[in-house]
Amino acid sequence: MVADFVLFPSRTEWEKISPSVVGYLEKVRTRRLCEARFALIETRTEALREVYESYLSTHRDQEPYAPSYREVARTEPFRTIIYDTPEEDRVGVSQFVSLMDNFPGIIDSWRTETSMLLLHIYTKGSGSPEGKVWLESDIQMLSRATAIFTCSVCCRLHLYPNVLTQACLQKAPQGDASVERVDPNFTWKEDAHIVREEDAISSVTEIIQVLGEDPTSITWKEMDELDKRVECLRCRRTQSGTGKIFRYVMAWRSAVSVNVLQIHAAC
Ligand SMILES: [Zn+2]
Ligand SMILES: [Zn+2]
């Protein structure tokens, strides 16, 4: 009697398809490992977040210059605990609480490092000699009215120090996913896509010059204190009834917005 069943796939067929089946199973396995690793790091990072945010809530003066908790997670001594503690060992809030004394130092060096980086971005292409070594004292240049940056992800304009904390962080591509590379955390340095906002800089420079001030040194604060006004030659309104045309006189910050965004009020 002939059997109703045959081996499927036959040996030769199996030999043909086995590489793709094995490859598929390998991919599924890697994906599961990646997901587990991601969840593990995320849970530990969340515990750090709780402690770090509670620290910041009592140190509001440091907050404008503080890295995100995701960056603190990638900074020692937290990095080793989060990334290198064996999977089966519990990592929790209490461990991070005992290391809270590290926060001021981390915030301080992060502030200096990112500010120096911004200084390089700000001065690049502005006539400063290439490769010039900037000093920490030069960071004050970031308070200039012409220190304007933009985020190449959302195109919003940023001033210092808000650019440090308000830039949207878009994770840099990590290449082929492998368990070792899985990481929900990111850093400002690698993931904030900040560039000089050339149009806004020339716009602000123009307004400062019209107001008779020096755009290469004046700060936002000094400009605010001067409280000078400009008359826009393009903004105008017609008085109802008489039909008389008036020009707008505006504070310097309003002039900047109108000029940068090109939102002149034409009647
Ligand atoms: Zn953005
Ligand atoms: Zn105008």
Question: Can you characterise this structure?
Answer:
The structure is a single chain. The protein is mainly alpha-helical. The chain has two domains: 11-192, no CATH class; 200-261, no CATH class. The protein has ten helices and five strands. It has helices at residues 11-57, 69-72, 78-84, 93-97, 103-123, 162-166, 188-191, 198-210, 220-226, 252-261, and strands at residues 149-151, 157-158, 194-196, 229-238, 245-251. The strands form two sheets. A three-stranded antiparallel β-sheet has the order 2-1-3. A two-stranded antiparallel sheet has the order 4-5. The longest helix is centred in the first third of the chain and has 47 residues, at 11-57. 21% of the residues are buried. The mean pLDDT is 88. Bound molecules: zinc ion (2 copies).
Q: Biggest sheet: strands, sense, closure?
A: 3 strands, antiparallel
Q: How are the strands of the largest sheet arranged? A: 2-1-3
Number of individual domains: 2
Secondary-structure element pattern, one letter each: HHHHHEEHHEHHEEH
General form: elongated
Number of helical elements: 10
- The mean pLDDT is 88
- Residue stretches low in confidence (pLDDT < 50, at least 5 long) are none
> Which class best fits the helix and strand makeup?
mainly alpha
| DSSP strand tally | 5
Beta-strand content estimate: 5-15%
Instruction: Give every kind of bound small molecule, once each.
Output: zinc ion
List keywords for this structure.
5 strands, two-stranded antiparallel ribbon, 2 domains, 267 residues, binds zinc ion
